[in-house]
Amino acid sequence: MDTDVIVVGAGLAGLTAARRLSQAGRRVRVLEARDRVGGRTHTLRLPVTGVSVDVGGQWVGPNQPNIMALLGELGLETFPTHDQGQNLARLGGRMLRYRGLIPPLPVPVLADYALLERRFLALSRTIPPGAPWTAPGAAELDAQTFDTWITRHARTAQTRALMRLYAGAVFSADPAEMSLLHALTYTAHGGGINGHTLVRGHALQDRVLGGAQAIAQRLADGLEDVRLESPVSRVGQDDSGVTLHTPQGRHRAAHAILAVPPALWSGVAFEPPLPARRAQLQQRLPMGAVIKFMAVYERPFWRSAGLSGLAISDTGPVTVTFDNSPPQGTPGILLGFIEGGHARELMELDEEARRKAALDSLARLFGDQALRPLETVQRDWAAEAHSGGCYGALFGPGVWTGYGPALRESVGRLHWAGAETARIWMNYMDGAVESGERAAREVLDREG
Amino acid sequence: MDTDVIVVGAGLAGLTAARRLSQAGRRVRVLEARDRVGGRTHTLRLPVTGVSVDVGGQWVGPNQPNIMALLGELGLETFPTHDQGQNLARLGGRMLRYRGLIPPLPVPVLADYALLERRFLALSRTIPPGAPWTAPGAAELDAQTFDTWITRHARTAQTRALMRLYAGAVFSADPAEMSLLHALTYTAHGGGINGHTLVRGHALQDRVLGGAQAIAQRLADGLEDVRLESPVSRVGQDDSGVTLHTPQGRHRAAHAILAVPPALWSGVAFEPPLPARRAQLQQRLPMGAVIKFMAVYERPFWRSAGLSGLAISDTGPVTVTFDNSPPQGTPGILLGFIEGGHARELMELDEEARRKAALDSLARLFGDQALRPLETVQRDWAAEAHSGGCYGALFGPGVWTGYGPALRESVGRLHWAGAETARIWMNYMDGAVESGERAAREVLDREG
């Protein structure tokens, strides 16, 4: 044996698993396809202003126990997301300024939205954590799209628009692309719609000082054997161990933890072949589509206009924005998300055309000052071969009920980790950490 | 250059393309991962009775011009599918004997079915061949599942059951797993529901004498450079050509035709990376789930009972059967299809348990004589690493409208073929041949 356990993927899931196994006295080798650690977290230092920004995952909140505990353990600090001032909503061509979650829409719309949300949350509370396929009426919930449910139950165009914005912002997808059961599952255990979308007290409350990639970097610094630029092309196992192939050669261990998105395993040779249900599951978990765009300004000019920097828009391509300035507030940074169908349209454009489309979108919300940034940065995660998309996998209709049990079930000496396999906070940093802890325990339990 | 064109995949699509290029004077190398040609066609000689059976694709019909022309060109003969006698339908626990397509259900059910079919066909006629994303109202048709549409429009349980049987038999999937737009697209250009499901004059009219794999074998026999057990793990391209990597080494050519199912390209390294939309499309085309089961008897005992061997059942695991005996009628062979959710359940069982479940299913239709075959054979296509499932790819909600144009669009020197890329008869042998002809023309056109 070259080592005790091989971990594939140096994102948060893989590195958390590797740390736990290493702490338990096991020899661990981490194989990472990229030339960096961090997976879907990536902190970049921008060339003009020298400011560091997260072009990948960046938020944590007090309702996310796994990532919060890990940050404490690694001695990393957080700072609050800026949310002082009024939010903006651009809906049906009208601009609204407001505080809190819901824009000041006409009373019938607010009543309709409240009813729809209550109905959605009541349904979501019927989903057992980690096992949505066992929910009452799971087959029926899984046989329709989230869009079908919205269309059927929303009585106003504005309510439909708000729910579509929720889907885009939280799933990086259109509601047509996912099953209702998945929308309920994903929403359920993160404190409902508010838990996923609110800042204070919720999932967007804090950012990591120094950038979110520092988490992976610290985890990797504590490990002895992390190998970059080592993509795995074949995975074998026999009675005594596993054999993984990279361009650098064969790697042999007693167990392997596979901590990259499920979609990336289709087309990789497994010997013996994976069980049919697992193999087909991997074909059925496509990644979301999102372009993360940031524009850097000398100062956060929107703050002096009484704006928080948080905005939603039903036109796009940017549909959600945040004030993403560093703790000290300069330079000012506006963050815009381009999701689902909007992301697909912009994928076809070159970088300059995308930049223009995104800045125009920001200017419709924040005025012409938004058109004159010092610099911009954009990241199309669908174009990243080793992620395949962000934030994570989508479950289309029929997938949870047809294939759910295969998501976490080990295949002999192969154990699955990654944010997609989390019981709660799937596709978040918290879910990645939860899955890494679980996979490490799984290996230790099976050794006996 | 090692050769002019490399074709990946020695199924009908790849070999058709290779033949056309070779006929046009080009040097062609075919790289095939398996130790045989034929892809999703595979003819087996059974050990006990010595009879040859197709465990993969087997039917052709006069409404399929591409495969019929190729059979003629290769000098292969066909023989008619046996359909003399009465069909069986087991619906809601009742057994019905009938002739023709539709069982003698109560008149209100027949009226409901007729209305539903008319509505479905009228919608399907609005879909332009090869470009469903341009259909009127495409976004709305693509935002819901086929199941949603059936549930909304079928007024009787029996009609719903018949439509679910149609989905299972023709898509190897549950209607919950596909978008309504896909169900319409797939159905539209094969002559409607009848075109896909009827024997005489339609897609199931004939079988290939000697087995369907003979087509691939004859195509391969005419080629000089077909390399088996050569799975492609990396695909590179530059200004002057393509480089494909197999365990045997590097293969260099001016163009490549990639003729394996789209799902199998996820996780394979492309250099430069594929365009984001193409890469995400590949994550979104999972393969259907089907187990093909055959039981061989001394003689076709159902014929003497006045039965055709064609049966449908709403209980499963076998939901559709055919008389699959050889032309001379002995031995007698019953073919049972196990699809979608039924296939997923049986995937979890061992071969013996599956055999028992399938035979019990046949016995409920054809009596206890069905329990005593001379031998049986089964093929779970989802367990085949180099197919990933059968008959072909499913388009879930949002995929056609979000990613459709990327299905056939060449990426530089890489050209896509395979039954999934056909304009008409997707996932049929005819579609595979159509796609191979098209890809070959594409390469010849771009050479200039």
Automatic annotation (TrEMBL), chains A, B:
Cofactor(s) required, per the database record: FAD
Protein name per UniProt: Amine oxidase domain-containing protein
PANTHER family (UniProt xref): AMINE OXIDASE, AMINE OXIDASE [FLAVIN-CONTAINING] B
Membrane spanning stretches: none
Residue sites binding FAD per the record: 32-33, 232, 420
Amine oxidase domain: residues covered: 12-444
Family membership: Belongs to the flavin monoamine oxidase family.
The organism's taxonomic lineage, starting at the top: Bacteria, Thermotogati, Deinococcota, Deinococci, Deinococcales
Keywords: Oxidoreductase
Positions bound to substrate: 189, 337
